[in-house]
Model the fold of this input.
Amino acid sequence: MMPFEQAATVWSIRFATLMYAAGLLSMLLGRERPARALWTAGLLSYLAHVVFAFHYVHDWSHARAAAETARQTEELFGIASGAGLFLNYLFTVAWTFDALWWWLDEDGYRLRRRWTSVAVHAFLAFMFVNGAVVFAQGFSRWFGLAAALPLFFLWLGLWLGSRGGPPRARC
Done:
């Protein structure tokens, strides 16, 4: 049995992964109400993960988090860089802003320019795959892959079935 600190950190990100995937699935299928609720649940769970990771793993130290990011990046790619931590910060801001926009200006969110949706979702998806698959280990990596692959194939199928280019979240 894993200690609470580790369980809280690991399971909060697994739940966030599940809610992120379910939220995107709902968006792609045009199910706006459940999509927004799932999207928000994923964000809240992700924010809990960030708090748990900084509290239990990094002792609220940006330097320790950057050093760990650099270690993992070197282990995977041979380059010791903590720059990925800043991308994680940007991911946090982007997802938070996206969810807040959806709650505070539903019509504006729904009517936003296509390039805005594509840019936001491309960045979030890139970060999601990096966090849930590339940098994950063991069961968490398989869990992330199981969440990402069906979404990719659904998106691809919708894209190939449409004439207007890649599908955009209908919400």
The radius of gyration is 17 Å. DSSP finds seven helices and no strands in the chain. Residues 14 and 84 are 20 Å apart (CA to CA).
